[in-house]
Amino acid sequence: MRVSELQVLISRQQIAQRVSEMAAQITRDFAGQPVIFVGVLKGAAIFLSDLARQVPLDSTFDFIGVCSYGQQQEAAKANAGRGWDSTGEVRLTKDVEHSMAGKNVLLVEDILDTGLTLTYIKKLLLNHQPKSLRLVALLDKPSRRRQPMQADYVGFTIPDKFVVGYGMDYAERFRNLPDICVLSEAVLSSGK
Ligand code: IMP
C-alpha cells in the first residue's frame, strides 16, 4: 500500500478551517474559565495540538491510552472486509496523570465510531467528579454506533469508511499524513 494510492476524503485546508471553528466555539463556551484537554492516545495527538493552540484559555494537557482487543489487523483475519471491527472489549493502557476533580475536562478523540471507547473513558473520567466533561471528536461515523454516544463538538460526520491521516493510523502507519484519507476495503481485507 502506497500513500499515492490513498484517496483524500478531507483536505488539510478543510481540517484547518473546521478546527478553527471548533476552537472558537470552545473558547466562547468556556470564556474566562480554565480547561484541561485530555487527548486519547495516539490518534488525537495532532488534533489536540492544533485545537488547543487556538483556544486562548488557561489550559493544561493530559493524555489517556486505551486499546480495543481485536481492533484492526487482528480482527481483519476473523472479519474479512470489516477489519477494523472492535470486539467490544476496551482496556486502559495509560491513565490520566492529574486529578480531574472540579475541572472543566475536554476529552479529545480522533474518531467516534462504535462508541465503545468513549463510553468506557467517559465513565472512568466521571468517577473523578469533574466540574464539566465535554466530548470533542474530530470525526463521527454515526452509522457504526453500537453504544449510544454523542460528542458535544464534532468536526465532520463521515460515512462508514476506514480513514487514516491527521493522527489516525492503520497498523500504526499513515498518522503523519496531513489530509484525512480513505483506506480501501481491498487493503483492509488483505491485511497489507
Ligand atoms: P470506537 O470505540 O469504535 O468508537 O472507536 C474509537 C477508536 O477506534 C478510535 O479512537 C480509533 O482509534 C479507532 N478507529 C475507529 N474507526 C477508525 C478509522 O476509520 N480509522 C482509524 N481508526 C479508527
Give structural notes.
By secondary structure, the protein is an alpha/beta fold. Helix content is 26%, strand content 29%. The chain has five helices and nine strands; from the N terminus they run E-H-E-H-E-H-E-E-H-E-E-E-E-H. The chain has a six-stranded mixed sheet with strand order 4-3-2-5-6-7, with helices on both faces. Helix 1 packs across helix 2. The longest helix is centred in the first third of the chain and has 18 residues. The protein starts with 6 loop residues before the first strand and ends with a helix. About 6% of the residues have low confidence. The structure holds inosinic acid.
Keywords, separated by commas or semicolons:
192 residues, globular, 29% strand, 5 helices, alpha/beta, six-stranded mixed sheet, 9 strands, three-stranded antiparallel sheet, binds inosinic acid
